[in-house]
Write a structure and sequence with these properties.
The structure is a homodimer.
Chain A: H1 2-20, H2 24-31, H3 36-45, H4 48-56, H5 60-69, H6 72-79, H7 84-93, H8 96-103, H9 108-117, H10 120-130, E1 148-149, H11 154-164, E2 173-177, E3 183-188, H12 189-194, H13 201-204, E4 211-212, H14 217-227, E5 231-235, E6 241-246, H15 247-265, H16 280-307, H17 309-314, H18 317-320, H19 322-345, H20 354-384, H21 386-416, H22 426-449
Parallel strand pairs in A: 1-2, 4-5
Antiparallel strand pairs in A: 2-3, 5-6
Pfam families (chains A, B): CBS, MgtE, MgtE_N
Protein name (chains A, B): Magnesium transporter MgtE
Transmembrane segments (chains A, B): 288-308, 364-386, 392-414, 426-449
Chain lengths: 451, 451
């Protein structure tokens, strides 16, 4: 691993400086010997301008393969730097489902013009995928599948596979249909190869794991990878076969969703392109909105503290513990939110489980709060006196219980109102627990200290 | 999607209450008609005890398929509730690579006893995988592959595939080797099916994308899914074929790594099992260590504030902004850390890029700080006076710049010392930026206010 990484870093650097010097000969010399996979990595690390130049220096045979493996966002950027006829050749060369991924990244006018330039056959296939809503499996399936009838023999089916293999997205998972195109089973090519030539499909096939074309692409992708299958038939509302959903698309969907979730958990937008080739201003833009929203939220803490300003002036020592207390509340809330957000993404928890989750998090939070509270009481009490110790201990207990409960329920509530659970997540919860934690703190302090 | 989820919720609930009432007939009636995939979901949502009972109620034909698809952690738990001979049958029925996943979750004595009970052939295959280090591809590969020689004809190769298909992990990607078992290419079964029977493999094969057996499993999994391939040959240090690495294992590795990263980002340990079936104490345990570490870190803020207690007593208004300022610093640091951690996981950034990342984050942080600083100056200045406004504005500028830089570099430094980048992540960075933010704040305040 280390060896390969270092090499690719060197290639990228050599390419960067050759392109900066406009030395195309050296650049071509650097990029020609590397594999398709390596070329993809190197290209994604270059700036948009250098990438278009470097792409043209690739050996002709590799160019389409490399293009197919690039991230759709990068594909879109790259197209901007190529000539119209180059763009059209690449676009025509993509599979219909990859084409739709790319179109989702392009301005509507460009996407429309490209679609128009396709051959009628390819246009029809692409349009059938484009007809499904965003984030549905229909939009991520391939309409180029090989299916077979239940009364086909193994030999007939293999002959059909041979005939269609060149065009089809996959031939390894073969949906079996009846005369109304309703899916009645699935056979694996592997099983056909070990079966006798005259065996009948309907006796070989297994019960189909199918997915509806309008279902969520993320949950279908999760299901496919959990099952460890290579593909699933995609069906319409009457169980008729309309396409096939393959594991490479599932993996891409999950990677995309996980990038989104990770970004949201950190209070930022997903860059959707490689970090080092993203302009500084684009990075700043991906963060500024959330930072402002969170700052506005945090200004609530200024108001809460103003209310208790007299108390603070009276017992300055109280202000020493503010960051510790709200920090601990934030951490406890974040832990709960992170666990529940991930459980939601994995399908382990659903929004209807809100009471069950709340019940668990109250207990987890109380347990953690009890432990921290006792520690806080002993340590702070010994140093700052037992009155302050009591305030800190009780506050930690209360804050942890409240924060874990809020943190655990927030992602479920977000999901229930059809928002992304990760949006109402860590930084948001920190801000929320900051304000509530401060109120708890001062209420307890006033009661214990009698002020 | 909703329909299926609701149904499974109902099944799970019905099963739970039937099992609680010891009503096995109703329980069997609930679980019998659902598919393998659904049974997996339902079982993973039950408690350990109920799961073992429910598992035994599954139709015999489905039981092994369901077991294979369960998460290895859940498999291990389930085994504890089954009879020895049931356990041995299940264990013998697994593929060697799945068996090793499971063994990694079992106590060493149990794993050893099970390994000993295998047939000599299966034991040999399993031992060859077990010989590779944890987190290496060797440990996640299958030793049951179909390979072919470069001088084989298509007909010869297909005959070989037919002969081996029943045992092999996959027959769709066929490594091509020379007489010393060195991998010289790869052919896809699909391409064999459309080629002429007498064509020679060496003229059909493509350059192989291979992976070394001791390479990191995560980076290999990422590479495989990025390429959209179904499998890659695994080779030893002399490029000799030792196994095959398939996309279903790659997807499982990535899901596991992403759960780990998500958990660490939230300052908790990955539960490694479904949330709702995890005991409360286990959840608390996964959080308590981090919470204590972070609380100890946060006690630094108490010390920093004690140093400036006199200043705070003099200008109580300063304490009002403490949560806002450190919160904004934490958010800015978290945003940078999240972006860079994800870029590291995706291979877009390497630890050698630390200066480049630092250079970018200084600028991003400065830009964000400038914006927030100006806003903070105007708003706070208008309400609390221009002196305080100046302090807040300058502090926001400085804190954002420092926090983004630290947040961006921390994951890279962690990686450089071979620690998990996600460990030194969000809550850790918040704690770190809290203390440095407070120092910056009071230094600026003393300078501007002349106290």
């Amino acid at each position: 691993m280390t060896r390969v990484e270092v090499d690719l870093n060197d290639v990228t650097e050599a390419l960067r400086s050759a392109l900066a010097d406009n030395d195309l000969k050296t650049a071509a010399h650097e990029i020609a010997p590397i594999s398709v996979a390596e070329a993809v990595t190197v290209l994604e690390r270059l700036s948009t301008k250098q990438r278009a130049v470097a792409y043209r220096l690739l050996p002709k045979d590799d160019a389409l393969d490399v293009f197919e493996s690039l991230d759709p966002v990068v594909q879109g950027e790259l197209m901007g730097g190529l000539r119209d006829e180059e763009v059209m050749t690449l676009f025509e060369g993509l599979d219909p489902d990859d084409r739709v991924w790319l179109m989702d990244e392009l301005p509507a006018t460009v996407a429309g013009r490209l679609l128009h330039g396709l051959s009628p056959d390819e246009r029809r296939l692409t349009a059938s995928v484009l007809g499904y809503p965003k984030d549905s499996v229909g939009r991520r399936m391939s309409p180029e599948f090989v299916s077979a009838h239940g009364d086909f023999t193994v030999a007939q089916t293999i002959a059909r596979v041979r005939e269609r293999a060149a065009d089809a997205e996959t031939v390894y998972t073969i949906p079996v249909v009846n005369s109304s195109r309703v899916v009645i089973g699935v056979v694996e090519l592997k099983d056909l190869l070990v079966a006798g030539n005259e065996e009948i499909l309907s006796s070989l096939m297994e019960d189909p794991e199918m997915v509806g074309a309008t279902e969520s692409d993320e949950s279908a992708a999760r299901r496919l990878t959990d099952l460890g299958f290579l593909a699933m038939p995609v069906v319409d509302s009457e169980a008729r076969l309309v396409g096939i959903f393959t594991i490479d698309d599932a993996a891409r969907i999950l990677e995309y969703e996980e990038s989104q979730d990770a970004a949201r958990q950190g209070g930022t937008e997903d860059l959707r392109r490689p970090y080092l080739s993203t302009p500084i201003l684009h990075i700043a833009r991906s963060r500024v909105v959330w930072l402002l929203v969170l700052a506005v939220g945090a200004s609530l803490t200024v108001q809460v503290l103003s209310v208790f300003e007299a108390t603070l002036a009276q017992v300055t020592a109280l202000s020493l513990f503010v960051p510790l207390l709200i920090g601990t509340g934030g951490n406890t809330g974040n832990q709960a939110a992170t666990t529940v957000t991930r459980a939601l993404a994995l399908g382990d928890v659903h929004s209807s489980d809100v009471w069950r989750v709340a019940g668990r998090e109250v207990r987890v939070g109380f347990f953690l709060g009890l432990l921290l509270g006792v520690l806080g009481f002993v340590i702070t009490g010994a140093i700052f006196g037992w009155n302050i110790g009591t305030v800190i201990g009780l506050t930690l207990l209360a804050v942890c219980t409240v924060a874990a409960t809020i943190g655990g329920c927030m992602p479920l509530l977000a999901k229930a109102i059809h928002a992304d659970p990760a949006v109402f997540s860590n930084p948001f919860i920190s801000t929320f627990t900051d304000a509530s934690g401060l109120i708890i703190y001062f209420v307890i302090a006033k009661a214990v200290l009698g002020i």
